[in-house]
């Protein structure tokens, strides 16, 4: 298991923990299509719930999107309903921790006092 800092939000630690125990994306053997694993879907939705993002479901979203976009997103994730697809997509964005951006910013900034073991 990876070590996480105590200051990392609980939702982030939960997602890391579950991700380590499961494969995030699976492929259907017969079609080669990728699918979000049930474990990842459950982890994202659980983290969103723990963060209070799912406590009230009275909001409504309306908009026009390409049917091809919806079809491909459903195919990629294995999610069947529009509501679940939108909720999963929004929760994924809302829980984003910007790791890649932070990692890039730290490039070349290793402290001289850090002992690397060689």
Count of individual helical segments: 5
Biggest pleated sheet: 2 strands, antiparallel
- The global form is elongated
Helix content: 40-55%
- The largest beta-sheet arranges its strands as 1-2
- Taking pLDDT < 50 over at least 5 consecutive residues as the criterion, the unreliable ranges are 1-6, 17-30
SS strand fraction: 5-15%
Order of helices and strands: HEEHHHH
Gyration radius over CA: 18 Å
First CA to last CA: what distance?
24 Å
The structural class is mainly alpha
> How many beta-strand runs?
2
Global mean pLDDT: 77
Please, could you describe this protein's structure?
The protein has a domain of 78 residues. The protein is 47% helix and 5% strand. It contains 5 helices and 2 strands. Strand 1 and strand 2 form a beta hairpin. Helix 1 packs antiparallel against helix 2 and helix 2 packs across helix 4. The chain is elongated, with a radius of gyration of 18 Å. The protein starts with 9 loop residues before the first helix and ends in a 13-residue tail after the last helix.
Helices and strands, with pairings:
Blueprint: H1 10-21, E1 25-27, E2 34-36, H2 38-50, H3 67-77, H4 82-94, H5 99-105
Antiparallel strand pairs: 1-2
Helix pairs in contact: 1-2, 2-4
């Amino acid at each position: 298991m990876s070590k996480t800092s105590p200051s990392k939000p609980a939702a982030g630690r939960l997602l890391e923990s579950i991700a380590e125990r499961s494969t995030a994306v699976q492929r259907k053997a017969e079609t080669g299509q990728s699918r979000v694993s049930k474990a990842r879907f459950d982890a994202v939705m659980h983290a969103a719930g723990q963060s209070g993002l799912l406590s009230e479901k009275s909001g409504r979203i309306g908009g026009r999107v390409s049917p091809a976009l919806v079809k491909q997103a459903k195919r990629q994730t294995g999610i069947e309903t529009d509501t679940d697809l939108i909720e999963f997509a929004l929760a994924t964005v809302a829980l984003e921790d910007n790791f890649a951006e932070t990692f890039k910013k730290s490039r070349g900034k290793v402290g001289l006092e850090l002992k690397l073991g060689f």
